[in-house]
Amino acid sequence: MTDYQQPQQPYYPPQPPRPPRHPAEPLSAGPGTTVRPADGHVPPPSAHGPAHAAPEPRGRARRGTGLLVAVAIAAAAIGGGTATLVQQLTADGTTTGSGPVSGANVSASSRGTVAGVAAAVSPSIVEISAASTSGKSTGSGVVITADGEIVTNNHVVSGATTLKVRLSDGTSYDATVVGTDPDKDLALIKLQGASGLKAATLGESDKVAVGDEVVAIGSPEGLTGTVTSGIVSALDRDVTVAKDDGQDQRQPQYDPRQGWPFEFGGQEFNGDTGTSKTTYKALQTDASLNPGNSGGALINMNGEIIGINSAMYAPSSSNSSSAGSIGLGFAIPIDTVKADLEQLRAGGSR
User: Fold this and answer.
1) Catalytic residues
2) N or C: fewer beta carbons within 10 Å in the chain?
3) Model pTM score
4) Partners of 255 in the β-ladder
5) Which of 75-84, 112-121, 141-150 is the least confident region?
6) In terms of Cα–Cα distance, which of 202, 229, 205, 203 is closest to 216?
Protein backbone atom coordinates (compact mmCIF):
# COMPACT_ATOMS: atom_id res chain seq x y z
CA MET A 1 0.00 0.00 0.00
CA THR A 2 1.41 3.27 -1.08
CA ASP A 3 1.90 5.90 1.61
CA TYR A 4 -0.17 9.10 1.14
CA GLN A 5 2.04 12.12 0.51
CA GLN A 6 1.11 15.69 1.34
CA PRO A 7 1.12 18.03 -1.66
CA GLN A 8 4.42 19.93 -1.99
CA GLN A 9 4.03 23.49 -0.65
CA PRO A 10 5.78 26.34 -2.48
CA TYR A 11 9.09 27.27 -0.93
CA TYR A 12 9.29 30.71 0.73
CA PRO A 13 12.74 31.83 1.74
CA PRO A 14 12.96 33.01 5.34
CA GLN A 15 12.81 36.71 6.00
CA PRO A 16 16.13 38.31 6.99
CA PRO A 17 16.39 39.04 10.70
CA ARG A 18 15.07 42.46 11.76
CA PRO A 19 16.12 44.48 14.76
CA PRO A 20 13.56 44.44 17.56
CA ARG A 21 10.94 47.17 17.33
CA HIS A 22 10.84 49.69 20.12
CA PRO A 23 7.43 49.61 21.87
CA ALA A 24 6.84 53.30 21.03
CA GLU A 25 7.65 52.82 17.34
CA PRO A 26 4.50 53.01 15.13
CA LEU A 27 3.71 50.12 12.85
CA SER A 28 3.20 52.38 9.84
CA ALA A 29 6.18 54.17 8.29
CA GLY A 30 4.03 56.34 6.03
CA PRO A 31 1.69 56.06 3.09
CA GLY A 32 2.55 53.47 0.46
CA THR A 33 4.78 51.33 2.75
CA THR A 34 3.77 47.89 4.05
CA VAL A 35 4.95 47.22 7.58
CA ARG A 36 5.19 43.73 9.02
CA PRO A 37 5.11 43.12 12.78
CA ALA A 38 8.19 41.63 14.36
CA ASP A 39 6.63 38.10 14.46
CA GLY A 40 5.86 38.19 10.71
CA HIS A 41 2.08 37.85 11.30
CA VAL A 42 -0.16 40.21 9.35
CA PRO A 43 -3.43 40.74 11.24
CA PRO A 44 -6.64 40.04 9.32
CA PRO A 45 -8.89 42.87 8.27
CA SER A 46 -11.18 44.26 10.93
CA ALA A 47 -14.87 43.65 10.76
CA HIS A 48 -15.34 47.37 10.53
CA GLY A 49 -13.16 47.75 7.46
CA PRO A 50 -9.61 47.39 6.26
CA ALA A 51 -6.93 48.00 8.84
CA HIS A 52 -4.67 49.75 6.31
CA ALA A 53 -5.28 51.74 3.17
CA ALA A 54 -4.23 50.09 -0.06
CA PRO A 55 -0.52 50.68 -0.60
CA GLU A 56 0.45 53.06 -3.36
CA PRO A 57 2.63 51.73 -6.18
CA ARG A 58 6.31 51.92 -5.40
CA GLY A 59 7.03 53.61 -8.73
CA ARG A 60 4.78 56.55 -7.83
CA ALA A 61 6.47 56.96 -4.44
CA ARG A 62 9.88 57.09 -6.09
CA ARG A 63 8.67 59.68 -8.63
CA GLY A 64 7.27 61.88 -5.82
CA THR A 65 10.57 61.74 -3.97
CA GLY A 66 12.43 62.66 -7.14
CA LEU A 67 10.11 65.63 -7.70
CA LEU A 68 10.74 66.89 -4.17
CA VAL A 69 14.50 66.61 -4.67
CA ALA A 70 14.27 68.47 -7.99
CA VAL A 71 12.23 71.27 -6.43
CA ALA A 72 14.72 71.58 -3.57
CA ILE A 73 17.63 71.82 -6.05
CA ALA A 74 15.78 74.45 -8.13
CA ALA A 75 14.99 76.49 -5.03
CA ALA A 76 18.63 76.43 -3.99
CA ALA A 77 19.69 77.57 -7.47
CA ILE A 78 17.20 80.45 -7.45
CA GLY A 79 18.26 81.48 -3.96
CA GLY A 80 21.93 81.51 -4.96
CA GLY A 81 21.18 83.48 -8.12
CA THR A 82 19.19 86.05 -6.15
CA ALA A 83 22.02 86.54 -3.68
CA THR A 84 24.46 87.08 -6.56
CA LEU A 85 22.12 89.57 -8.22
CA VAL A 86 21.67 91.55 -5.00
CA GLN A 87 25.43 91.68 -4.50
CA GLN A 88 25.94 92.94 -8.05
CA LEU A 89 23.24 95.59 -7.72
CA THR A 90 24.45 96.91 -4.37
CA ALA A 91 28.02 97.02 -5.69
CA ASP A 92 26.77 98.94 -8.75
CA GLY A 93 28.25 96.26 -10.96
CA THR A 94 31.80 97.46 -10.33
CA THR A 95 33.04 95.35 -7.43
CA THR A 96 32.30 91.85 -6.20
CA GLY A 97 34.40 91.80 -3.06
CA SER A 98 33.40 92.75 0.45
CA GLY A 99 35.92 95.56 0.96
CA PRO A 100 35.10 99.26 1.07
CA VAL A 101 34.89 101.45 -2.01
CA SER A 102 38.32 102.95 -2.64
CA GLY A 103 38.65 106.37 -1.05
CA ALA A 104 35.07 106.55 0.17
CA ASN A 105 35.13 104.16 3.14
CA VAL A 106 31.56 103.01 2.53
CA SER A 107 31.41 99.68 4.36
CA ALA A 108 30.17 96.60 2.54
CA SER A 109 27.13 96.35 4.81
CA SER A 110 26.15 99.99 4.13
CA ARG A 111 27.11 100.24 0.47
CA GLY A 112 24.27 101.52 -1.67
CA THR A 113 22.43 103.14 1.26
CA VAL A 114 21.92 106.82 2.05
CA ALA A 115 23.16 106.22 5.61
CA GLY A 116 26.35 104.58 4.35
CA VAL A 117 27.09 107.37 1.88
CA ALA A 118 26.36 110.07 4.46
CA ALA A 119 28.64 108.50 7.06
CA ALA A 120 31.49 108.15 4.57
CA VAL A 121 31.31 111.55 2.86
CA SER A 122 30.02 113.99 5.50
CA PRO A 123 33.52 114.56 6.99
CA SER A 124 34.57 115.94 3.58
CA ILE A 125 31.78 118.53 3.36
CA VAL A 126 32.24 121.95 5.01
CA GLU A 127 30.25 125.08 5.75
CA ILE A 128 31.60 128.36 4.32
CA SER A 129 30.72 131.72 5.85
CA ALA A 130 31.61 134.64 3.59
CA ALA A 131 31.57 138.26 4.72
CA SER A 132 31.73 141.21 2.31
CA THR A 133 30.85 144.88 2.21
CA SER A 134 27.34 143.93 1.10
CA GLY A 135 26.69 141.49 3.95
CA LYS A 136 27.16 137.85 4.87
CA SER A 137 26.21 134.63 3.17
CA THR A 138 26.55 130.93 3.86
CA GLY A 139 27.50 128.19 1.44
CA SER A 140 29.13 124.79 1.35
CA GLY A 141 32.31 123.24 -0.01
CA VAL A 142 34.01 119.91 -0.70
CA VAL A 143 37.45 119.00 0.70
CA ILE A 144 39.60 117.54 -2.09
CA THR A 145 43.04 117.37 -0.39
CA ALA A 146 44.19 116.46 3.11
CA ASP A 147 45.86 119.87 3.55
CA GLY A 148 42.64 121.80 3.01
CA GLU A 149 41.93 122.53 -0.66
CA ILE A 150 38.18 123.06 -1.01
CA VAL A 151 36.05 123.32 -4.14
CA THR A 152 32.95 125.52 -4.00
CA ASN A 153 30.90 127.86 -6.20
CA ASN A 154 32.27 131.18 -7.33
CA HIS A 155 29.09 132.90 -6.21
CA VAL A 156 29.67 131.64 -2.63
CA VAL A 157 32.99 133.50 -2.26
CA SER A 158 32.67 136.27 -4.85
CA GLY A 159 33.54 139.62 -3.32
CA ALA A 160 34.22 138.15 0.12
CA THR A 161 36.67 140.00 2.37
CA THR A 162 36.87 137.19 4.94
CA LEU A 163 36.14 133.49 4.79
CA LYS A 164 35.46 131.16 7.73
CA VAL A 165 35.16 127.42 7.21
CA ARG A 166 33.67 124.94 9.67
CA LEU A 167 34.24 121.20 9.39
CA SER A 168 31.69 118.52 10.22
CA ASP A 169 33.33 118.02 13.64
CA GLY A 170 32.91 121.72 14.51
CA THR A 171 36.55 122.74 13.94
CA SER A 172 36.86 126.19 12.33
CA TYR A 173 39.54 127.57 10.01
CA ASP A 174 40.25 130.81 8.23
CA ALA A 175 40.48 130.41 4.47
CA THR A 176 41.74 132.32 1.46
CA VAL A 177 40.68 132.23 -2.18
CA VAL A 178 43.19 130.44 -4.41
CA GLY A 179 41.43 130.87 -7.74
CA THR A 180 38.02 131.43 -9.29
CA ASP A 181 36.40 130.66 -12.63
CA PRO A 182 33.25 132.77 -12.95
CA ASP A 183 32.47 131.24 -16.36
CA LYS A 184 31.94 127.86 -14.70
CA ASP A 185 30.79 129.25 -11.33
CA LEU A 186 33.69 127.46 -9.62
CA ALA A 187 36.20 128.52 -6.98
CA LEU A 188 39.06 126.92 -5.06
CA ILE A 189 39.85 128.05 -1.50
CA LYS A 190 42.51 126.86 0.95
CA LEU A 191 42.30 126.45 4.71
CA GLN A 192 45.09 127.99 6.76
CA GLY A 193 47.09 125.53 8.85
CA ALA A 194 44.99 122.46 8.08
CA SER A 195 46.32 118.91 7.75
CA GLY A 196 45.06 115.35 7.92
CA LEU A 197 41.60 116.18 6.57
CA LYS A 198 39.32 113.60 4.98
CA ALA A 199 39.40 114.24 1.22
CA ALA A 200 36.40 113.29 -0.90
CA THR A 201 36.66 110.88 -3.82
CA LEU A 202 35.85 112.50 -7.17
CA GLY A 203 33.80 110.29 -9.48
CA GLU A 204 32.96 110.49 -13.18
CA SER A 205 29.90 112.49 -14.17
CA ASP A 206 29.96 111.24 -17.77
CA LYS A 207 28.86 107.84 -16.43
CA VAL A 208 25.81 109.28 -14.67
CA ALA A 209 22.42 108.24 -16.05
CA VAL A 210 18.95 109.66 -15.55
CA GLY A 211 17.34 107.79 -12.67
CA ASP A 212 20.58 107.14 -10.77
CA GLU A 213 20.16 107.53 -7.01
CA VAL A 214 22.10 110.40 -5.46
CA VAL A 215 22.73 112.02 -2.07
CA ALA A 216 23.22 115.76 -1.48
CA ILE A 217 25.14 117.08 1.54
CA GLY A 218 25.53 120.75 2.48
CA SER A 219 24.67 123.48 4.97
CA PRO A 220 21.28 124.91 4.02
CA GLU A 221 20.38 127.91 6.19
CA GLY A 222 23.50 127.18 8.29
CA LEU A 223 22.36 123.66 9.21
CA THR A 224 25.74 122.00 8.79
CA GLY A 225 25.87 118.48 7.36
CA THR A 226 22.28 118.28 6.16
CA VAL A 227 21.69 115.14 4.07
CA THR A 228 18.99 114.73 1.43
CA SER A 229 18.51 112.14 -1.30
CA GLY A 230 16.83 111.67 -4.65
CA ILE A 231 17.68 110.79 -8.24
CA VAL A 232 19.29 112.41 -11.26
CA SER A 233 16.32 113.94 -13.07
CA ALA A 234 18.01 115.14 -16.27
CA LEU A 235 21.41 115.72 -17.87
CA ASP A 236 22.98 118.69 -19.68
CA ARG A 237 20.61 121.40 -18.51
CA ASP A 238 21.69 124.91 -19.63
CA VAL A 239 21.71 126.90 -16.39
CA THR A 240 22.58 130.61 -16.33
CA VAL A 241 23.88 132.31 -13.18
CA ALA A 242 25.21 135.75 -12.29
CA LYS A 243 28.89 136.23 -13.10
CA ASP A 244 31.52 138.34 -11.38
CA ASP A 245 33.57 139.71 -14.26
CA GLY A 246 36.38 140.94 -12.01
CA GLN A 247 35.42 144.61 -12.32
CA ASP A 248 32.49 144.73 -9.95
CA GLN A 249 33.41 142.93 -6.72
CA ARG A 250 30.01 143.47 -5.20
CA GLN A 251 27.92 140.34 -4.92
CA PRO A 252 24.67 140.29 -6.90
CA GLN A 253 21.47 140.73 -4.93
CA TYR A 254 20.91 137.65 -2.78
CA ASP A 255 17.69 136.73 -1.00
CA PRO A 256 18.42 134.06 1.65
CA ARG A 257 14.78 132.97 1.57
CA GLN A 258 14.96 132.14 -2.13
CA GLY A 259 18.53 131.13 -2.90
CA TRP A 260 20.94 132.19 -5.60
CA PRO A 261 19.24 133.73 -8.68
CA PHE A 262 19.54 131.76 -11.91
CA GLU A 263 17.98 131.50 -15.35
CA PHE A 264 16.70 128.49 -17.21
CA GLY A 265 14.76 128.27 -20.45
CA GLY A 266 14.81 132.05 -20.86
CA GLN A 267 13.19 132.72 -17.48
CA GLU A 268 14.64 134.09 -14.25
CA PHE A 269 14.23 132.34 -10.92
CA ASN A 270 14.98 133.41 -7.35
CA GLY A 271 15.70 137.01 -8.31
CA ASP A 272 17.51 139.12 -10.88
CA THR A 273 20.71 137.60 -12.26
CA GLY A 274 22.00 141.00 -13.43
CA THR A 275 23.68 141.86 -16.71
CA SER A 276 26.86 139.80 -16.29
CA LYS A 277 26.00 136.13 -16.71
CA THR A 278 27.45 132.75 -17.55
CA THR A 279 25.82 129.52 -18.73
CA TYR A 280 27.00 125.98 -18.03
CA LYS A 281 25.74 122.43 -18.51
CA ALA A 282 24.31 121.04 -15.27
CA LEU A 283 22.99 117.83 -13.78
CA GLN A 284 19.40 118.16 -12.60
CA THR A 285 18.29 116.42 -9.41
CA ASP A 286 15.16 116.15 -7.30
CA ALA A 287 17.25 115.79 -4.12
CA SER A 288 16.19 118.67 -1.90
CA LEU A 289 18.54 121.68 -2.21
CA ASN A 290 18.01 124.87 -0.23
CA PRO A 291 19.88 128.16 0.28
CA GLY A 292 23.29 127.25 1.68
CA ASN A 293 23.61 124.02 -0.33
CA SER A 294 25.54 125.91 -3.01
CA GLY A 295 29.05 124.51 -3.30
CA GLY A 296 28.13 121.27 -1.55
CA ALA A 297 28.30 117.76 -2.96
CA LEU A 298 26.05 115.66 -5.14
CA ILE A 299 27.15 112.07 -4.51
CA ASN A 300 26.50 108.69 -6.11
CA MET A 301 25.74 105.58 -4.08
CA ASN A 302 29.39 104.49 -4.14
CA GLY A 303 30.33 107.59 -2.15
CA GLU A 304 31.88 109.44 -5.10
CA ILE A 305 31.31 113.14 -5.83
CA ILE A 306 29.58 113.52 -9.21
CA GLY A 307 28.62 117.20 -8.99
CA ILE A 308 28.93 120.50 -7.10
CA ASN A 309 25.47 121.81 -6.19
CA SER A 310 25.01 125.29 -7.57
CA ALA A 311 21.39 126.36 -8.05
CA MET A 312 17.86 125.49 -6.97
CA TYR A 313 14.41 126.76 -7.65
CA ALA A 314 12.39 128.12 -4.73
CA PRO A 315 8.85 129.53 -4.98
CA SER A 316 8.86 133.31 -4.84
CA SER A 317 6.93 134.08 -1.68
CA SER A 318 7.36 136.08 1.49
CA ASN A 319 5.57 133.29 3.34
CA SER A 320 8.31 131.04 4.70
CA SER A 321 5.94 128.08 4.87
CA SER A 322 5.79 127.96 1.07
CA ALA A 323 9.44 128.76 0.42
CA GLY A 324 12.10 126.11 -0.04
CA SER A 325 13.03 123.30 -2.39
CA ILE A 326 10.43 121.77 -4.68
CA GLY A 327 12.76 119.20 -6.21
CA LEU A 328 14.42 121.29 -8.92
CA GLY A 329 18.13 121.47 -8.20
CA PHE A 330 21.21 121.75 -10.40
CA ALA A 331 24.84 120.72 -10.00
CA ILE A 332 28.03 121.39 -11.96
CA PRO A 333 29.29 118.02 -13.27
CA ILE A 334 32.44 116.83 -11.50
CA ASP A 335 34.19 116.22 -14.83
CA THR A 336 33.95 119.97 -15.42
CA VAL A 337 35.51 120.57 -11.99
CA LYS A 338 38.39 118.12 -12.57
CA ALA A 339 39.18 119.68 -15.95
CA ASP A 340 39.33 123.13 -14.28
CA LEU A 341 41.39 122.25 -11.20
CA GLU A 342 44.84 123.13 -12.56
CA GLN A 343 43.61 126.52 -13.75
CA LEU A 344 42.05 127.18 -10.34
CA ARG A 345 45.27 126.19 -8.57
CA ALA A 346 47.16 128.61 -10.79
CA GLY A 347 44.90 131.47 -9.72
CA GLY A 348 42.10 130.95 -12.22
CA SER A 349 40.60 134.08 -13.74
CA ARG A 350 40.68 136.19 -10.58
Assistant:
1) 155, 185, 294
2) N
3) 0.65
4) 259
5) 75-84
6) 229
